[in-house]
Amino acid sequence: MQLSLIVTLLSTAALAHAENAPRAWGLKATKTEPVSLTAAATAVGAAPTVALNATVVNCFVTLPTNILSAEGLATPFILQPPCSQSVAGQQSFAEATILDPATGALSVYHPLIMDAGTTPLAPNVVPQLPANAMIGLWFGFNGGVLQLQDANGLTTNTSPSLKGADCVNGLPGVVGDVFGQVSWCGAQAFFKAANTAIAAGLTVIPPLGTDTLGNPCPTSRSFEITDACPSDNVPTQYLLNPVTRQTSQDTVANRAANANATVINNASDEALLANIIDPLIGCTPFQAPSLDNPGVMSSALALSEIQANQLQAAPIGLVPLNDPDCLLTGAGTVSADKTNAYRLGVNQPITSGNAAATVDPTGVTGALVPYCNNMVLVGPPFFAGFQNVFINQGTPAANVGNNLFTFLCERYLMSLTQLVCPPAAFQPVVCQVDGNGAATSCVITLNGTTTTNTTGTAMPTGTAVAPVATTSTATTNTGFHHGWRHRHRKNKY
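Now predict its structure.
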């Protein structure tokens, strides 16, 4: 499906802010630094008592007590100072997927995260939920570490309301342990109900289809897509007034009423697949009706993971034990328990515990060697096959690569380094980088045949975003800002 794109021109203030914002696309550190749990608790909607600071990379978001309800989802979540949604490297996102257990129908809702002391740019849409709805809620972040807290400043290990909603921010029960950018509430119960509905024939999963080269369309667990930190972050977008710092849900009505607002988005694996790659290669992501944007179909992390769980053929890219998100925060060491906690949040089977496995087509062991080998085996042929398409697309992050092709190649190489993969017998991808470490030209050699981005021409950074669809079509958004590079060089990906 070919989607028309419009270029969103940033206001002078927004552009200046974007240029001065801390860059967040990069190779993630080998472990997440411990994060202070002494956040200043600010009541929902209250004015911030802490000055904003654009250099901060670890943030807190305050949730209402009844988070997994229509009222809770429609209540704005509060990003606490010194962080702000107007700072690209501090932008935070939420996404809920809802299952009707009686019919198996799925839907998506995007709770709003706004700055403390502000009001929504437009009133939130209150979702109309089915009876006995099963709700899963996921969070994404463009900075270092995002932690969930209640109105009293208690986190997921200490808050009665967050524990009651099964909110998970890291290894459960270990104070201070965090995944990094991602967290969730109610995920395990939601996926259990969804998988039951699928088995009963109530929920029907669409087929993957084939890409324009005749290959099965990739999923979030395909090694064409996976990296060091697979299955993370969300494809949520918000509207932002860069002057007032107000945000709103990204809807047809809100775009029409706020023509000067800019679109902000979460740099995520799920969005890279659904919003960028799928439309370019002739594939269609799994979507469901949006409850906050009536008449529009929406992609979601949960939908991607449900489809991948049912249809991804071997080799399967499940979250590996060496995923930096899954290393213990304090020690930086591999933890099967933390990896399993992460896997349960994204509908994956727990690890078998055989970290020394050298062959693992199903990904169940989480072992490093087969994960690395499958990245080398599967990724480069995919990049080469669509090189002519990807080279002519804007880069999701100019400080990773200067077009989509060089971005994907450099992201792949960064991931092998970040995972500390054993050197490949033959590395088919070689990239040239500029003084800032961004790839400007990449060569792929497969079976003695070399393909290259010979021009090294920089394509525009992703400032093009699709208008919100008024029919049931995918929303393409190449306007990613900072998350990938931060995740590679700083804290994620």
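The chain is about 25% helix and 15% strand.
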